[in-house]
Amino acid sequence: MSDQPFPTFSSISDETSRRSRAFIYVAVFLLFIGGAIYIGNQMFGNSSTSKLSPTPTPLKSSPTPTHLSPTPHKEESGISTPSSNLTTTPKPTKKASEMEKISLRIQVLNGSGKKGAAGQGATLLRNAGYNVTSVGNAESFDYVKTVVQLKKSKNQFKETLLKDLSRSYTVDPAVQTLAESASVDAIVIIGSE
């Protein structure tokens, strides 16, 4: 009889070693997967365990110190220690060049008779940050210098507007007063120079 009713020692040991090897392979595979998950979480973070970073809060500007002078100060012990007197100067109000140019409503008129002169002037002013509301022709085309008409209530823009225009045009420095009831804050009439 070649069939043995009971397994022999050698057949039991082969079956056990196969099971042992299979167990070891599964254990190594699970350890590898667990390690990969752990390393992945450490390297790339997990949204539930990631640390929150503080959001910076903008600081309000404060007056700048302009003068520090050490002043001796005697404490109760009689020892003189230096202290400083801090003098601050408030920041100056905005200059005309820093004001919001977009708030100045300007009409640009062609006073030279050259085709497209008002459009070119409007483009210059828009690029400088002004609000050009309309473009058209002046009553006559005999303007040599560029003329500015400005409401008295918008006089803080006078220097800035003249400076911006003088980059491309010869501007009459005598700014004319525009009626407060006008629909725009300023009229710029482009001259031939």
What does this protein structure show overall?
- It contains 3 helices and 7 strands, in the order αβββαββαββ.
- The protein is an alpha/beta fold.
- Among the domains are: 38 residues; 95 residues, Alpha-Beta Plaits (2-Layer Sandwich), CATH 3.30.70.2390.
- The strands form 2 sheets. A 5-stranded mixed beta sheet has the order 4-3-7-5-6, with helices on one face.
- The chain is rod-shaped.
- It starts with 8 loop residues before the first helix and ends with a strand.
What is the secondary structure topology, with strand pairs?
Blueprint: H1 9-44, E1 64-74, E2 80-89, E3 105-110, H2 117-127, E4 131-137, E5 147-151, H3 158-166, E6 176-178, E7 186-190
Parallel strand pairs: 3-4, 3-7, 5-6
Antiparallel strand pairs: 1-2, 5-7
In brief:
By secondary structure, the protein is α/β, with parallel strands linked by helices.
